[in-house]
Design brief:
With 456 residues, the chain is an all-alpha fold. Helices cover 78% and strands 0% of the residues. Keywords: Membrane, Transmembrane, Transmembrane helix.
Length: 456
């Protein structure tokens, strides 16, 4: 079918949004204006366009709401564990076995990886960093090395896979119009190749610099380990959390729970554990403490997702949700703005999977320049749908590739303003940390993109 004015408005604002992100500016305003202009085109009135802007937010929140809720409740649980030093108890056994910089790098990274899966990287950064920093320094791993490990394992590998909470794949899958399971399954080899290559290169560069004495001055002065009192409450809390989440995983396999159902089970379990652990910490303050932790958790979650909602709202208009916002406005034969654009693109421009993979990686990385990693994933998913439908390639794998690029660049590995949490807890410069991560991440993206070309 022929492209309409709405299609050209959508294309124009996709370009404007990309330019905005390249300039390292927030893209909320272009997204709102783009939604408003689409409303004017379809509703032919200012009132209808203004109502459409708000309705698009509501639709986006319907899509993202479950993800926001699960993040909030998980962070709330981590706060209760932090209060009775349960987190320290979880990590303390490692301090006895970490005797070298290599062990410190991979053990700290692995702990960060699993904690980020369940509690999200930002809250995990403060908990893991505070405990592992003195251990790392004693074992010969500089603070910068610990920061790199935490970044790449947590904000990189854990956040880009996100198999447990499924926040990242939910956003990209929603924008691409495919099930979350498709993004996870089809992108599995890409997730691990990106992680293995990037972390291996980063570790090689770190070992080289350690051998050349780059960090000798820093390591000359180590910090003593400040042990925290760990009582029975901490031990029981860890046991309860371990049992709860292990039973959840068993239930997921037994009852074939995936996507939203799996997140709902985890969230409900976290809510019950939050009450039990706070009751155990101090029965007299349970009512107030549970409310306080939930406020902290949801405050964190809304800070992460606040700017994502209007951005996702615009990109969701490229697919089926446009009907919820403006009504049945698509012309006969249209499969949605993005699908129509993809068909037109395939007819007008010679296109192949090499170009599709390359553009998906580049665009994903560009969208990550805003320092979020999440705000650009809707675009990454949308583009994957466009390219996949245009040349009949694996949309799930292409979506995962865009997700990987957006997260590894903007989720806390390269962009300095997204590195502040880890840099602060480790006492290093976020700019220098970004520079050290740059080469490993770029090599990882290059290798992952090449592999993607062969599996699309």
């Amino acid at each position: 079918m022929a492209l309409t004015g709405a299609h050209y408005i959508y294309i124009l604002f996709m370009i404007i949004i990309l330019i905005t992100m390249i300039m390292r500016k927030e893209s909320v305003i272009p997204c709102i204006i783009g939604t408003f202009l689409l409303g004017l085109f379809y509703k032919k009135s200012v009132v209808g366009a203004l109502a459409g802007v708000f309705t698009s937010f509501v639709v986006a929140l319907e899509e993202l709401g479950p993800v926001l809720l699960i993040i909030g409740i998980m962070v709330a649980l981590s706060k209760s564990l932090e209060e009775n030093n349960a987190i320290d108890f979880m990590v303390k056994p490692f301090s006895k076995s970490i005797k070298s910089s290599t062990a410190a790098f991979f053990v700290a990274g692995t702990v960060m990886f699993f904690m980020s899966w369940f509690f999200w990287p930002s809250p995990a950064s403060a908990l893991v960093g505070a405990v592992f920093l003195p251990i790392a320094l004693r074992s010969g791993l500089p603070a910068m090395g610990l920061a790199v490990a935490m970044n790449l394992f947590g904000h990189g590998l854990a956040l880009s896979t996100d198999f447990i909470i499924q926040g990242a794949p939910s956003i990209t899958a929603g924008a691409a119009g495919i099930p979350v399971e498709a993004v996870i399954k089809e992108g599995m080899i890409l997730y691990w190749i990106m992680g293995i290559v990037t972390i291996s290169v980063a570790f090689y560069m770190l070992r080289r610099d350690l051998k050349n004495g780059v960090f000798d001055e820093e390591l000359a002065t180590t910090k003593d380990f400040e042990a925290k009192e760990i009582g029975p409450k901490a031990k029981i809390s860890v046991l309860l959390v371990a049992i709860g989440f292990i039973l959840d995983i068993v239930a997921m396999y037994k009852f074939n729970l995936k996507g939203g159902d799996a997140s709902a089970l985890l969230g409900g379990t976290a809510g019950v554990l939050l009450i039990i652990i706070n009751t155990m910490n101090n029965p007299k303050t349970t009512l107030d403490k549970v409310a306080e932790h939930i406020i902290e958790g949801f405050t964190f979650a809304i800070k992460v997702f606040a700017v994502i909602i209007p951005i996702a709202a615009f990109f969701y208009l490229g697919d089926a949700p446009i009907v919820k916002v403006f009504g049945d406005v698509l012309p006969q034969g249209s499969q949605g703005l993005l699908s129509d654009i993809g068909v037109a693109l395939s007819q007008a421009v010679p296109f192949n999977k090499v170009a599709a993979a390359g553009i998906e990686t580049i665009v994903g990385g560009i969208t990550g320049l805003d320092g979020s990693g999440f705000s650009g994933m809707s675009l990454a998913g949308s583009l994957a749908a466009v390219f996949g439908n245009a040349i009949n390639i694996n949309v799930g794998a292409l979506t995962a590739l865009g997700q990987i690029s957006a997260i590894w660049v903007g989720g806390g590995c390269i962009v300095p303003w997204s590195l502040i949490a880890v840099a602060a807890i480790c006492g290093v410069s976020p700019v220098e940390l970004g520079k050290r991560n740059f080469i490993p991440v770029m090599i990882g993206l290059a290798v992952t993109t090449i592999v993607a070309i062969f599996i699309l």
